Amino acid sequence: MLSKTIPGTNIEYRNNKEASQIIEEMIEITGGLSLSQICKITNLQTSTIQNWVKRKYVPRPDHKKYYERHISRILLISALRECMNIEDIGELMSMINGDTDDETDDIISETRLYDYFCKAISKLDLMSLNDEQISKTIIDLLKDETVYKERLVCGLKVMVYAYISGRCLNEINNNLNKLKIYQEVR
Q1: Could you give the CA distance from residue 93 to residue 102 in angstroms, rounded to a whole number?
Q2: Confidence (pTM)
Q3: pLDDT digits (tens, 9 = 90+) for 162-179
Q4: Is 46 helix (H, G, I), strand (E, B) or coil?
Q5: CA-closest candidate to residue 23, choices 11, 34, 35, 15
Q6: I need a surface site. Which of 107, 126, 144, 151 has the fewest CB within 10 A?
């Protein structure tokens, strides 16, 4: 498993539940998440999410509440932003699902896309990672998808590679910071 936390959040996986189940339970309990609740589970600033909404990377909330579609998009962006800039993430998302505000041009729901992404991340092992393993994992996950399958495979591969790269960049930065401490000690 590449992550002990649900991608894009600080929430640990628990009770063998899938990411979508955990998110659905939170929405069910709260009747939709508020901006401050999303900030708590993502460690994002309110201004960051508001900017994403303003720039149409995330659909506008419904009466100040965020539901599956909104949250899935926010969590995907949050998970990918360590390695990709927001413009590239927005372009990637529009290549998969078109206009943020128009669900009729979506080839897959944001929630299912996020769910596939989380499942791919949870099935992959960083120590034995290769393109064949990533492709096979994603194709297996998408076995029931009948339309735009190749586009979904390509989009999910970009997401998985970006997420892995972001994790690697974090480790690079952590070790660089440790090296700086050693350099100061000399």
Answers
A1: 13
A2: 0.83
A3: 998 988 888 888 888 888
A4: helix
A5: 11
A6: 144
